[in-house]
Design goal:
Two copies of one chain form a homodimer.
Chain A lengths: L3 H4 L13 H7 L7 H9 L3 H10 L13 H18 L16 H10 L5 H21 L2 H12 L5 E4 L15 E5 L4 E5 L7 E4 L8 E10 L7 E11 L12 E5 L12 E5 L2 E4 L9 E2 L5 E2 L5 H10 L2 H26 L20 H32 L6 H32 L1 H5 L5 H8 L9 H19 L5 H13 L8 H7 L6 H9 L1 H23 L7 H10 L1 H24 L5 H21 L1 H6 L5 H18 L3 H6 L5 H4 L7 H19 L4 E2 L6 H8 L5
């Protein structure tokens, strides 16, 4: 496929040797990035699937048209979903017997690329295949697959995934909708008992859905018994007459109306007034009701059953992680391409203005985010592999499922927040041009906004990760008693003066006396970064675990109070863990790069990522005696040096994302700015050459001072 | 006027005594906030004007209607601007002789409130009166005022402010448009020499503007002389035939089209092909051309002349600062009201779910931002007073003008970035509901986005501030030689071990041995916070100044290189300075609060603001020996304690912003969520009372562990 790198002149690769002489002396001539090779590494295991998907997504029929009304946008996206169904190879995850390919990894890899066409299309497709049809597949049984899946897969039945309610989003276990079994008619009565129990924010609910998978509290009574609430189960419920589009009797709804983004999706609310569905429309893989009302389940613990049912949702989080990383790539392609062409202010010369990316602050705004985007891409590849292990059945154990859920819960917040941050930094780095819709950044940001709170609110997911970290920690110590743990923690983390980890060596070697260059050299070592990042996670988890110990013995109120008191610390643990996951993935990714020059540049980028995490948490390292003050200073100055080294490779590093102009679709990333700059410079050059340039009114300001004064100033 | 506090039941004031027992023992009964009194303090010197403006802005004719097409929105905003002209008392800043009131402060205070109706309306009004008419007023002379101002003031002539070009935004001095004087016809020839010199992003340019103030390089030749470029000057240029709306001969244009927000404004591009305007349409207050082409100016230095002309633009920055603070207020009213009503997860009890704002992390997300919003409000009041001093002529000296510009350049970035951050935090804190347009946050964020880069790009403004800090610093030391400065800096800041400021006392007293409560007590002291914040600014400025010294002697290239190397440090200086400005304003604001309970709560809020700044820069304080590790730990734990104390007052603190439901207009901030929660809880209460509640399937999970497990979890 054609990528940006084929079409545009090289930016800064040879004509912007921004490395200073000192850098060059230290490190030899600046290496070159082998862009096609790096492309292949970043595309990863599903490179072919991704390339095919990107080729397909060049089709203008799939692209967002800006400025459509909400109604027009919704209609267009529905049409696009139908095109996807027939031409887009979107059924790979479904059983071969039903026309799929049982290819879970390829399916998600493809799906993640759809975000480049229109995030609304990605999410509408996700609702149809990833949630609605997928619930039938994973929560239903053979009979459901045969009866219900084909129409869901073909979009003959557009479907809603009716789980969230106005009153309950993150806490699914507490939803209010009930499904009460009536043995007399062998039906379930689906009912919304109060306003807060309306299903809400559902794609396909406002307009297009003719059926839904509805989650409700299953209430049934065995013969002669009192009714029991067996917890949340899923039911297949018709919503609309496909011919007329009218809601069926007992079903009412509301349109969620305009949203901050994703307006190509018809999100809406649904309310059920004693709606009856036949007994066999319970998706009964994990819980069934016999004609007489007797409840049975292959999973005896209601808690475990609930988590098992919900665990099929993990693919949503996995794919959002991938889509968010891809969106960050687009943002950086746009901002870095523009920053390599746009000029503003002449600092060093009378006539030549400075290219934006030559400004240190501009590098600070964009390059660490580029580093994190690479980290996110490598980490996502690992997540996808874990996902395939579980969903293909190759490695489907309780433990691997839990691992998968924890990694997804750690990475989805990291990458979705990063995408929002990167889109905004890119938009501001492009100034007023960044605010124009034609340059793509603002719409992408608007659409991606909700990625931070749907499919698991990021803050809630982080707590899930923290709880897993705590659980692992207590498992590690299950054979020693509480006072033993306390002693361990105290010896390890409670007092910096007593700190005795392998890191001590590094800290001491690099105490304030050490020279800066050598100190930076050690920060660059993979093992040093690993120890610093790992140690932080472990120490913080141990501290919180110790603080939470009394919760195991005290009252429920006391436990809740203690937990709340440490909620922020728990979230910080999870964040540190996510950082470490991304860093480890990036580090492992370096091994895949055979070309020495490319690997060297990518290692600098990895170092920027690792050291940026350390810089962000520098106070923690200082307070806990892991870094001396002198060492801590080095972190920032070494990042600055790395940014200077990376600057000439910035364009290569975004070109290696392998998106073409048909994916980027931003007016300022087409070379237009370079043309404008060249024209303007030619104009002045000609004026000077011909003597037509009017003399400037004589300035009384001295040149040296002026150089400083004329560097970026708003006036 | 009616404010939210009159209409809604009290939130958390008495029924959520979230202060722990320990807090209560330490500090006596929790104080009460006198909301009407605090309202008056926050409304400040222009309270009456603000109240009047808010009353007027309740009018639904002035409100944004969501979901309009771009064309409809533009048309509506134009109509609203015309209503403002006749009914909105928007001419206060203009001369009394022309129907104004010479009231610069009241005018801006009113204008800042317009953002609550629709940011597009605020900015369209800003273009008309704050830029277009204001340029005629400040850059023109008597004849221009009489001939051109009345139609600009009445919007009979909607006007564009044609300064920015596609190729030059921040660097106005380098714009490409030329105005060449032709003595033969006594006309200026306005010309766009190349594509990058098109005027761009101009409100009123795409559709409505019939004239513009155009900035161009003034080129003229005195009799028998060579042409000289006298730099940027402003010209009054007709654009369109008012009758037909057609562009006049020689003028061409483009529509900027859709933007990330502010789509009620018709931004566009303009190109001039040898367009002739009469000599007297040069706005000639600061530079004039005689019929024979001779140039004269009351300001001999071209640099100073340029900055003087542009300094009239400062009012835009002042008013954006105010509007951004007001928008943060709206965001927090919405998020905190919702967080006081919304419940999710039952941690401490079997039946009662927890109100969001009782979660420690939710407090961390919202309350420090509330603190910064108060700081921003107090700081803005001071900025407005400085503005009035200069623009009323009461304190119009070179120095006061420079101070005004520096304060505006520091505060506008702080408040506009803060508004974006707060809107996003509020939107995420409201979950999916926050993403619905009916809840206002997403549209406000989309509109406010560009506030960070227009009227002075924030990053560029910060450099302006830094340069002023450097200039002041070098002035301070002008009488000692360079080595003296170096010695001073070294003794003061270069080595923590040599550090000898008054702070040393505080640091030593609070070394690791000290007890936590006492340590926190000292952090709470106003003088401690002031010293910590001031010392950081001074030390960082001294360090950068020393590092930049060689720039004064070296070549232009060398100076530019050095400056660039320290660009990030310079911006950090400016940020630290802005923090200090806001903190000082907040601290001074406390003095205006007579009621002891209110003052106490507000002091906690000020402490959260001050300590959050210190927490954000904790690594700096540690590296530079200003805080010991033990002390640094206290900063975070003390913030946590303050948040618990503040939590019961959160609603009062946003109610005191004195916005009514007509300004807030968010469905989730109307009490609707409380009604839904009450209904749901009543439903379950009744079920339990009547024995209708189905028994839950027996759980095998032990209660204490469950309390922890059930605290926020995504499943």
């Amino acid at each position: 496929m054609t990528t940006l790198s084929d079409k545009r002149p090289s930016h800064g690769r040879t004509d912007h040797p921004a490395t200073s002489r000192a850098e060059r002396t230290d490190h030899g001539p600046t290496p070159r990035v082998d862009v096609p090779l790096l492309e292949q590494v970043v595309l990863g295991r599903w490179a072919d699937v991704r390339r095919e998907a990107r080729e397909f997504l060049k089709d203008p029929r799939m692209h967002r048209i800006e400025g459509l009304s909400m109604a027009e946008h919704r209609a267009r996206v529905l049409e696009q979903v139908k095109i996807l169904a027939t031409e887009g190879d979107v059924l790979r995850a479904f059983p071969t017997a039903l026309g799929g390919a049982d290819d879970h990894g390829g399916s998600l890899a493809r799906f993640e690329e759809v975000v480049t066409a229109d995030p609304s299309l990605q999410i509408k497709a996700g609702v149809q295949w990833g949630l609605f049809a997928s619930a039938i597949l994973h929560l239903g049984t053979q009979e459901h697959h045969e009866r219900l899946l084909p129409a869901a897969m073909s979009v003959d039945v557009p479907g809603a995934f009716a789980m969230t309610e106005t009153g309950h989003g993150s806490d699914v276990a507490s939803i209010g909708t009930t499904a009460t079994y009536d043995a007399a008619t062998q039906e379930f009565v689906i009912h919304t008992p109060f306003r807060a129990a309306w299903k809400d924010y559902l794609g396909n609910a406002a307009l297009h859905g003719t059926a839904a998978v509805v989650f409700a509290q299953l209430i049934t009574a065995g013969p002669g018994e009192e009714p029991v609430n067996h917890g949340v189960h899923a039911f297949y419920v018709p919503l609309r007459d496909p011919a007329t589009g009218e809601l069926l009797p007992g079903v009412s709804g509301e349109d969620d109306g305009l949203k901050g983004g994703l307006n190509g999706i018809d999100n809406g609310r649904l309310c059920f007034d004693q709606v009856r569905v036949p007994r066999h429309d319970l998706l009964n893989r994990y819980g069934d009701v016999a004609p007489d009302g007797t409840y049975t389940s292959p999973i005896t613990s209601p808690g475990r059953r609930f988590f098992t049912m919900l665990s099929t949702l993990v693919q949503g989080r996995v794919s959002l992680d991938g889509a968010a990383v891809n969106t960050s790539k687009l943002a950086l392609i746009i901002a870095i391409t523009y920053a390599n062409e746009r000029r503003q202010f002449s600092a060093a010369s009378e006539t030549d203005e400075v290219v934006l990316l030559d400004y240190a602050e501009h590098q600070r705004r964009l390059l660490p985010r580029l580093a994190q985007t690479y980290a996110g891409a490598f980490a996502h590849e690992r997540l996808l592999e874990a996902f395939v292990g579980v969903f293909s059945g190759a490695d489907d154990t309780d433990e691997s499922r839990q691992d998968l859920e924890t990694i997804a819960a750690a990475l989805k917040p990291a990458s979705t927040w990063h995408a929002l941050d990167t889109l905004q930094a890119a938009r501001e780095a492009c100034g007023g041009a960044g605010f124009l819709t034609e340059n793509r950044l603002v719409s992408l940001r608007a659409d991606l906004d909700v990625y931070a709170t749907f499919e698991g609110d990021n803050t809630v997911l982080m707590q899930l990760v923290a709880k897993r970290l705590l659980a692992d920690y207590s498992k590690e110590f299950k054979d020693i008693d509480a006072s033993g743990v306390a002693r361990y923690v105290a010896g390890r983390a409670a007092d910096a003066a007593l700190h005795r980890t392998p890191l001590l060596r590094v800290v001491q070697t690099l105490a304030d006396g050490g020279n800066r260059r050598r100190s930076a050299g050690q920060l660059r070592e993979t093992e040093t970064q690993r120890e610093l990042l790992t140690d932080r996670v472990e120490t913080m988890v141990a501290e919180v675990a110790t603080a939470l110990r009394p919760a195991m013995k005290g009252s429920r109120e006391e436990a809740a109070r203690l937990f709340n008191e440490h909620q922020h610390a728990l979230i910080e643990c999870a964040r540190a863990h996510a950082d470490l996951l991304q860093w480890e993935a990036f580090t492992a990714g370096l091994e895949k790069v055979g070309d020495p020059g490319t690997r060297r540049v990518l290692t600098w980028l990895r170092d920027v990522f690792g050291l940026s995490i350390i810089e962000r948490n520098l106070a923690w390292y200082l307070i806990n005696g892991r870094l001396s003050a002198g060492r801590a200073r080095t972190v920032t100055s070494y990042i600055d040096r790395l940014l200077v080294r990376l600057r000439p490779h910035a364009q290569d590093l975004v070109d290696a994302f392998a998106y073409g102009p048909e994916h980027v679709r931003a007016a300022i990333a087409t070379g237009a700015e370079r043309e404008r700059q060249d024209e303007a410079r030619a104009h002045y050059r000609k004026q000077r050459a011909t003597g037509e340039e009017p003399r400037k009114e004589k300035s009384s300001v001295k040149p040296a001072v002026k150089a400083v004064r004329q560097a970026p100033s708003p006036a």
